[in-house]
Amino acid sequence: MPLLDEDRLFPVEPALRDLARGLYGTVCDLPIVSPHGHTDPRWFAEDQPFPDPAQLFVTPDHYVFRMLVSQGVALTDLGVPRVDGGPTETDGRRIWRLFASHYHLFAGTPSRLWLDHGFQHVFGIDRRLSAETADWYYDHIADCLSRPEFRPRALFKRFGIEVIATTEPATDDLRWHRIIRGSGWDGRVVTAYRPDGVVDPEMAGFAENVALMGQQTGFDTATWNGYLDAHRARRAFFKQFGATSSDHGHATARTEDLPQADAAALFGKALRGACTPDEADAFRGQMLTEMARMSLEDGLVMQIHPGARRNHSGPVMTVHGRDKGFDIPGRTDYVAALRPLLNAVGMRPDLTVILFTLDETSYSRELAPLAGAYPCLRLGPPWWFHDSPEGMMRFRQMATETAGFHNTVGFNDDTRAFCSIPARHDVARRVDCAFLATLVATGRLREDEAPDLARQLTYGLAKKAYKL
């Protein structure tokens, strides 16, 4: 029997379910616009087969391995690399068996929906994953991965992806994007400018990264003006490879608009490694405002996603490095934090700043009122810990009343797990159709308005907001 219910995530009440099902039928086959993600551009450049099922579904997906770690499974047993190059499990079948024997842990989670969607719709599987079926799954998926129709470019087309944005550091040479462009392939893969490594004085290698940016651009990045000009040059370079956005992941949403002499002095302290924690946060805040001004110059959409308390586990950070499932949400202030940036450029309708949050308490109290007033602001979709059916519905319920639909930007999948992309978009489409059906049934939306809104939430708003 199928792994997935055809009416999953639709309302239980029959009339509402019929409305939601009908709306979903108008958008389920629309192309995927994926404007913010972390897939590896090398996949599309080289178009080599994925190595094995474990490296497709388990090892790259922090949603998967963090759940297993929470039940005592070691990251090394899942093949997650060590920073010192030390030994980790390399046998894909062993990793897969370990994953399968713990698959029950995902019951009721969005990861279960995404994984089952991939198993059923990508690999044609109709039996549940367990310790007993682990080897059958592994052999079946491995056999599929050996075929041309399961290579990255073929799956890109099969998934209906119109455009996907990867995310690269400011100093990246974009070699894989260059290869994609030179290959003649017509799949649209663009980059996004992620400058955290050259704007965060507390990040390891900050001064070295700034110096490298100077070497790449020919500007003297030991000076404040040279440093800003180097950013402009790198942003222009990223635009050559399709970038329409920049992406900023800071611990807080703090912004500053200091006099330029004060900003220059703070930059000097940052280069010397002499900033206090508050000064480092102030410098990051100043750079958000500087990046907003640069967006007015070059047109890049600006994404700000604060609130992750990154690398919470010291031992995991020491052994495995960054981005290994131990980033934890924290309380985030937006109203006071964003005011310097908004006082500087917030009334400019030719600027787009997309705000994300990991603090759901801010939706109706701060984010929706801000986006419902300032022309430059848009709300990003539920993100990371909240891109679940419940999280998506809470977002619509709390944000729509003040910000409406058109101050939001549709959906993005924000994933490294390639096969989860169509699954995540499908979940978002179903939840949005369920929400619209409820508005229609309760007399808050005309039935003839709902199909166009469903299309906007699925496709149009993302295209418009990200200039794609």
UniProtKB/TrEMBL annotation:
It holds the Pfam family UxaC. Transmembrane segments: none annotated. It catalyses: aldehydo-D-galacturonate = keto-D-tagaturonate; D-glucuronate = D-fructuronate. Pathway: Carbohydrate metabolism; pentose and glucuronate interconversion. Keywords: Isomerase. GO terms for molecular function: glucuronate isomerase activity. Gene3D superfamilies: Metal-dependent hydrolases, uronate isomerase, domain 2, chain A. Its EC number is 5.3.1.12. InterPro entries: Metal_Hydrolase, Uronate_isomerase. It comes from the Bacteria. It is an enzyme of class 5 (isomerase). Belongs to the metallo-dependent hydrolases superfamily. Uronate isomerase family. This is Uronate isomerase. It comes from Paracoccus angustae. The lineage of its organism: Bacteria, Pseudomonadati, Pseudomonadota, Alphaproteobacteria, Rhodobacterales. The gene is uxaC.
